[in-house]
Write a structure and sequence with these properties.
Blueprint: E1 14-15, E2 17-18, E3 27-33, E4 38-43, E5 48-53, E6 56-62, E7 67-72, E8 78-82, E9 85-89, E10 95-98, E11 107-114, E12 120-126, E13 134-139, E14 145-152, E15 155-160, E16 166-171, E17 176-182, E18 189-197, E19 202-208, E20 214-219, E21 223-227, E22 233-238, E23 244-250, E24 256-261, E25 277-281
Length: 294
């Protein structure tokens, strides 16, 4: 069993450093790819999957008109939620499989993640964020697709507890991080309830540390907040961009928190660092991130 570094509780906020140039219009879905030892993220409105080599943009792979989320696959390659469907790419980036369309015009895929059994979940939303029009979809390793939760608005920030019995999810307009009971045998999610009420911005993408702490990006808040499972705010990371969209652990010691930002809706001269990736060593390890088991 590994020894965990104590969670830092600073008296004041810590500040993330800008890691890259502006590399996205609407950066989201950042995650460490252990097979490549690289960070990967999506540029939602450009439909691109980006790979970073440290501070350098190594590649951009066009995967669709819009791309919401991705995760590595256990056998190599990635699963991607793009436009209105799920897509499997092989290790070369070539198309291996695509699901049928899951919904009609006026909606798009957004954020997602994998449970400990290797299922991939991703939420869809109305492009105008109409209330109740979002759905959390589940892609099983046998490539069947089914709705897991309905009546959402902007589904975001999905992570699982290390033991897999609970999922933590953000539906942004609720202003909270919610916990759901997770059935590992069936993949079902139930009994949604808030675990932390978020202030200072709209909750967006999320990561979890090895102590169970939930690090949530604050859209419009220029920050990432860490909440303990009793709902207490325990750490604040300041970011030099207003629209903070997602975060993930990776890098040396798995203690670096990588943060995406967005230029969506901004003028050319506004918020000059928006669209860059930021990084800070938070001195606590990230929880393992599951891959798609197919």
């Amino acid at each position: 069993m590994r020894t965990l570094t104590p969670v830092p509780v600073p008296e004041e906020a810590i500040r993330a450093a800008q890691l890259t140039d502006v590399v996205t219009h609407h950066g989201e879905g950042i995650c460490w790819d252990p097979a490549l030892s690289r960070l990967r993220l999506v540029d939602v409105s450009e439909g691109d999957l980006l790979t970073l080599d440290g501070e350098r943009l190594e590649s951009r792979l066009d995967v669709g008109a819009v791309v919401g989320a991705w995760r590595p696959r256990t056998n190599g390659g990635v699963v991607v939620a793009t436009d209105d469907r799920f897509v499997l790419l092989d290790p070369t980036g070539a198309l291996e499989w695509t699901s049928p369309s899951l919904f009609g015009p006026g909606r798009r895929m957004n954020d997602g993640g994998c449970d400990r059994q290797g299922r991939f979940y991703c939420g869809s939303m109305d492009v105008h964020a109409m209330p109740g029009q979002g759905t959390l979809w589940r892609l099983d390793p046998d490539r069947t697709v089914s709705p897991a939760i309905t009546d959402l608005t902007i589904p975001n920030g999905l992570v699982w507890s290390v033991d897999g019995t609970r999922a933590f999810h953000v539906d942004t307009p609720r202003g909270s991080i919610d916990v759901l009971e997770h059935d590992g045998d069936t993949g079902a999610l139930a009994n949604r309830r808030p675990v932390a009420h978020v202030s200072g911005g709209d909750p967006d993408g999320m990561a979890q540390d090895a102590h169970g702490g939930l690090w949530v990006a604050l859209w419009g808040g220029s920050a990432v907040h860490r909440y303990s499972l009793d709902g207490t705010l325990t750490a604040v990371v300041e970011v030099d961009a207003v629209q903070v969209s997602s975060c993930a652990f990776g890098g040396p010691g798995d203690t670096h928190l990588y943060i995406t930002t967005s230029r969506q809706g901004l003028g050319e001269s506004e918020d000059p660092a928006a669209g860059a990736v930021f990084c800070v060593d938070v001195a606590v390890e990230g929880a393992p991130v599951a891959a798609f088991s197919a």
